[in-house]
Amino acid sequence: MVQASPLERARPSWRLLTTATVFGAVTIALIWSLAVPYGVLVCAADSTACYPQFRAGSGVIASCAVAVLLAGTVTVGMFAPRLRGIIISGVAVLGAAPLVTYVAISYSPGFELG
């Protein structure tokens, strides 16, 4: 049996990094195309979650959080590919991010920007 050299074992996993990037892009697109403009379909009369200007602040925070998580996952994947568990965890969290951010933005009271 031939063993791989240390350099071959340290190569980045392009499939994981591509998957993380796609999950991050889809999440940010979902935030700004559905969650912020439309939010929940049925609103209570006094809920601030019914107004897009209040959901915009939550959208900015969620977008920044997704971008930081994506940047961290890709950075670890490029410069420390041996930490595969952290990369897989980042991809898993980014995979759940579309649902979590949509619910968080749509149903939270949020805050107005500016």
Strand percentage lies at under 5%
- One letter per element, helices H and strands E, the order comes to HHHH
Ends apart, CA distance between termini: 64 Å
Tell me, what's the shape? elongated
Plain-language structure description:
It contains four helices and no strands. With 114 residues, it is mainly alpha-helical. 25% of the residues are buried. It is elongated and about 70 Å long. The protein starts with 5 loop residues before the first helix and ends in a 7-residue tail after the last helix. The protein has one domain. It has helices at residues 6-9, 14-35, 52-79, 84-107.
Features:
single chain, 114 residues, mainly alpha, 4 helices, elongated
Topology of helices and strands:
Layout: H1 6-9, H2 14-35, H3 52-79, H4 84-107
Brief synopsis:
68% of the residues lie in helices and 0% in strands. It is mainly α.
